[in-house]
Q: What sequence folds into this?
């Protein structure tokens, strides 16, 4: 994180998101899991979130993503843009998106070691 | 049966270091017996002929080691012997000259060996494979993987399915190749807890074997009509079972990402190879049918699991 990172509430349609370097996208059927390598946490994405997140490349803005999604799914563009901005801000708040300042409070810790599970 | 006395017994009682040459002077019941499973090698020698026979019986599904392999240094050798001490707790287990256990009852010897074997297999397999805390059985080469924490009823469900004629892979650690997802057997004896004994009266160890029972029966596959062990199978069905007495046996669909999350919690040493394990779990879920399974009673659960397997891709 840097001083220039946006607060989650300041994310706008002009923002071009990409996942942080320590975050890995793992597709699971039509859903996905984001693994935060720094925090050792897993974040589950439903099919819509997985689709949006798959499009994060650091160059396409949220407005452009909303254009594509609205055309593909024939849903009102304004509504989808609002959802995409909110979702991105939410992921950013969890330290998963480059350029958005977050407070790391992982969803699912999987650091347990099952060494005595027998 | 020899009881160790004198200086060695005093050393053991005091918890002091044990000279390997002193162990060599013990009159053992026979040569050490050793086994290999999932890349883990272990061997046992004991002063107790009945224990020696029971060890050979319960580990019969594993690959026996030759004498040269036992002495090669890659094999964990456990020495189990009685020494002069409290008569109720006069057994020691020594590993590589170090006390593993002392002041043990005779009934705790087999469970301790089993525990060490599990530890060794988990340590070995979790490095090179996707190693799940799970029972696994198979039919016609198609595996059912049942992943759950302790006390969820994995072994009971595994034993129930073996009684229906399915093949045995493991009741403790399902080992999957991270690339092919093939399940290879860890054919340990089933560890059947006291609470499940009434469900399997035909498996009760009798005669001298009963002396080696503490809170679990150790039952090798093929015993009492149980299905036999097979080497490998391809996964077709993945379940997260939970014993829910008083409820209703039912299979519940879960979201794919949620199933991966559930399985991550059942993966031994998940965080040592997080991404490799995650990708393997994701592909496992994509390939198989998967459910969260509520188990109200054994027979209805076996009926349902077999039906799910028949309908799995």
A:
């Amino acid at each position: 994180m840097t001083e220039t990172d946006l607060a989650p509430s300041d994310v706008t349609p002009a923002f071009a998101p990409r996942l942080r370097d320590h975050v890995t996208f793992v597709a699971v059927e039509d859903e996905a899991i984001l693994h935060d390598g720094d925090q050792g946490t897993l974040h589950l994405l439903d099919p819509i979130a997985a689709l949006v997140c798959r499009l994060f490349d650091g160059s396409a803005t949220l407005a452009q993503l909303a254009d594509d999604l609205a055309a593909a799914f024939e849903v009102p563009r304004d509504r989808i843009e609002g959802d995409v901005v909110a979702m991105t801000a939410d992921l950013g708040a969890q330290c998963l998106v480059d350029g958005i300042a977050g407070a790391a409070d992982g969803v699912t810790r999987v650091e347990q070691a099952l060494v005595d599970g027998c | 049966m020899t009881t160790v006395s004198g200086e060695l017994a005093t050393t053991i009682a005091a918890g002091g270091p044990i000279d390997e040459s002193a162990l060599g002077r013990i009159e053992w019941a026979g040569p050490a017996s050793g086994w290999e499973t999932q890349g883990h090698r272990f061997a046992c020698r004991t002063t107790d002929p009945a224990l020696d026979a029971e060890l050979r019986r319960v580990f019969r599904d594993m690959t026996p080691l030759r004498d040269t392999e036992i002495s090669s240094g890659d094999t964990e050798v456990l020495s189990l012997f009685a020494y002069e001490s409290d008569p109720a707790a006069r057994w020691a287990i020594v590993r590589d000259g170090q006390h593993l256990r002392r002041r043990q009852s005779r009934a705790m010897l087999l469970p301790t060996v089993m525990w060490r074997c599990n530890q060794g297999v988990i340590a070995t397999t979790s490095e090179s494979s996707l190693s799940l805390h799970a029972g696994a059985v198979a039919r016609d080469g198609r595996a059912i993987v049942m992943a759950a924490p302790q006390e969820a009823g994995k072994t009971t469900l595994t034993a129930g399915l073996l009684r229906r004629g399915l093949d045995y892979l493991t009741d403790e650690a399902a080992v999957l190749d991270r690339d092919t997802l093939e399940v290879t057997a860890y054919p340990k004896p089933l560890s059947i807890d006291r609470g499940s004994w009434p469900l399997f009266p035909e498996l009760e160890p009798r005669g001298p074997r009963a002396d080696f029972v503490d809170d679990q029966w150790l039952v090798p596959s093929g015993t009492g009509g149980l299905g036999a062990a097979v080497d490998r199978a391809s996964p077709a069905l993945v379940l997260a079972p939970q014993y829910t007495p008083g409820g209703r046996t039912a299979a519940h669909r879960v979201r794919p990402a949620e199933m991966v999350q559930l399985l991550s919690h059942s993966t031994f040493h998940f965080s040592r190879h997080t991404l490799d394990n995650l990708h393997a779990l994701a592909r496992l879920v994509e390939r198989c049918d998967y459910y969260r399974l509520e188990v109200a009673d054994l027979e209805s659960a076996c009926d349902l699991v077999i039906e799910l397997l028949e309908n799995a891709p």
Notes: The radius of gyration of chain B is 21 Å. The mean pLDDT of chain B is 94. The first helix of chain B runs from residue 6 to 14.
